[in-house]
Amino acid sequence: MPLLIENLHKHYGELEVVRGISLQLQPGECFALLGPNGAGKTTTLRCVLGHTEPSAGSIELCGLPVPARAREARAKVGVVPQSDSLDPDFTVTENLLTFARYFGLSREAAQARVPELLTFAGLEAKAEAKVPALSGGMKRRLTMARALVADPDLLIMDEPTTGLDPQARHLIWDRLKGLIAQGKTIFLTTHFMDEAERLAHRIAILDRGQIIAMGTPREVIAAHIEPQVVEVFGEWAGHEGGAAAWAAAHAGEYAQRFEVSGETAFCYLEHPEALLAHLAAQGGLRTLHRPANLEDVFLKLTGREMRDE
Amino acid sequence: MSKLLVPLDLSPRRALSVWRRNADVWRRLAIPSLLGNLADPLIYLLGLGLGLGALLPQVHGVSYISFLATGTVAFSTMNAATFEALYSGYARAHQQKTWEAIMNAPLSLDDVMAGEWLWAATKSLFSGGAILIVISLFGLVPWTHALAALPLVFLTGLCFAGIGYIATALAPGYDFFMYWFTLFISPMAMLCGVFFPLEQLPAFVQGAALVLPLGHAIGAIRPLLLSGATDGLWLHVLVLSAYALIGMAVARALMRRRLLR
């Protein structure tokens, strides 16, 4: 099994950052760990890689106990950290060759591997470019290629697309899909719900150090939320208070559940027809009707209040 | 305290790959780096040695420039090791996150620190070695003595890099290193006999050279270079090794606390 976590706890003094996480990855699956800032995602990854000692619980990475044999286990894992840690003094190719040496690859084996990795990263034309000359998306792709240098079965990625523009993000997703198709196991953290919904076979939502939902994206949505969402916003003709006032007066009649956040009323329900007909008769109010997604579940389970870093 | 006692997790081969990474980066800047390492001490050596030396009688039975040159070997080695451990070490450990990236590969913090430590000592060997070449070419010391001093130069590098990593582990930023230089490195240069014999200082200050590592580096290197004398060498080697190892052990515990928490 690529990864097995049982009842993981991690606390710093009084502060308990991870509170009893258990999960297991199946070979070949893409598993996404979702959570707001400070939920414990990065700490979990650090424990998994043996970079910090768990306060309690057990971890098995690629069949080896961590942290006891973390070094051996990491030889079979590719890691894409959240922050850019490429070597600015080296070219693209040199970054790959230097990293290959850390894994004990011979110079010949490493050099034979470079063209394939450059193609994967779409950096053939940048092979001799220095790292500072690369764009953010290129750097992230190079970091991914670097993680693949020893051809690992398991890839661990901490927020692989944070800070990238949509084009660069889609390109990363494309590469990730390619890796999944090759049969690699991927364990990633993200706070982009669309990313998880698109890529992950299974997800877990982490909040305040605990897993509060786990399953396929469809399962999690079905288990936690009504299938349809109608967002209502704007002025309500002839009434004070706009969408919020409308929701207080009528949302409960039509929606199984609703909440008002700022200027918008979110109505969650199974059959939206009656609500939509009612809204069409109201002047001024604007509506957005869509199927429920992971983001709705996430917000329902973790709340809408801001989380600071 | 408990972090001092964590068992060593060291793979020499992996540690060497960290050394090689740093050597690869250095290679492309080798010429300016060596020139920089040489120019500064040589300016002092020629300026003070010839200018000030002309006013001075012999010091300890040798010309002032020879006296100064032999102290400069230890002084430059200390500076090179300290700069590498502090500024370059900080960049790799914290700012560029080079260590973090390496530790995602099958390397432990001990591998990384061992490779870095060896590298800092190697670089200081280049620096001290370059000065040895120049002063033996000038005929200030016999080249056989210069060759014999190389292991001591390397040990001096290990010593100052070892204690230097304590500063690197504690530093919140580069500015912090000013304290290290102002409170530790610069006073040592004055107290340990780089520029003038210790006997010129009041007796109570002379004791400082007995405990400060630069005093022992000079105590070991200068007599060997000037006359091939090795009396009391073992004590200097012992003290330098102790500084190196204890410094490294403390730095390791502090780095574990900072990077592996």
UniProtKB/TrEMBL annotation, chain A:
Gene Ontology MF terms: ATP binding
Annotated CDD domains: ABC_subfamily_A
SUPFAM superfamilies reported in the protein's UniProt record: P-loop containing nucleoside triphosphate hydrolases (SSF52540)
Keyword Transport tagged: yes
SMART domains listed in its UniProt record: AAA
Alphabetical list of PROSITE patterns matching this protein: ABC_TRANSPORTER_1, ABC_TRANSPORTER_2
Superkingdom of origin organism: Bacteria
Transmembrane segments: none
Listed InterPro entries: AAA+_ATPase, ABC_transporter-like_ATP-bd, ABC_transporter-like_CS, ABC_transporter_ATP-binding, P-loop_NTPase
UniProt record similarity statement: Belongs to the ABC transporter superfamily.
PANTHER family: ABC TRANSPORTER ATP-BINDING PROTEIN, ABC TRANSPORTER ATP-BINDING PROTEIN NATA
Name of the protein this chain belongs to: ATP-binding cassette domain-containing protein
Organism: Uliginosibacterium aquaticum
From TrEMBL, chain B:
Cell location: Cell inner membrane
Domain ABC transmembrane type-2: 32-258
InterPro entries in UniProt: ABC2_TM, ABC2_TM_bact-type, ABC_2_transport, ABC_transptNodJ, Nod_factor_ABC_transporter
Residues that span the membrane, as ranges: 41-57, 64-83, 117-141, 148-171, 177-196, 203-221, 233-255
Key words, A-Z: Cell inner membrane, Cell membrane, Membrane, Nodulation, Transmembrane, Transmembrane helix, Transport
Pfam families hit by this protein: ABC2_membrane (PF01061)
Keyword Transport (UniProt): yes
PROSITE patterns for the chain: ABC_TM2
Record membrane topology: Multi-pass membrane protein
Subunit structure: The complex is composed of two ATP-binding proteins (NodI) and two transmembrane proteins (NodJ).
PANTHER family for this protein: NODULATION PROTEIN J
Family: Belongs to the ABC-2 integral membrane protein family. Lipooligosaccharide exporter (TC 3.A.1.102) subfamily.
Functional description taken from the UniProt entry: Part of the ABC transporter complex NodIJ involved in the export of the nodulation factors (Nod factors), the bacterial signal molecules that induce symbiosis and subsequent nodulation induction. Nod factors are LCO (lipo-chitin oligosaccharide), a modified beta-1,4-linked N-acetylglucosamine oligosaccharide. This subunit encodes the transporter.
Name of this chain's protein: Transport permease protein
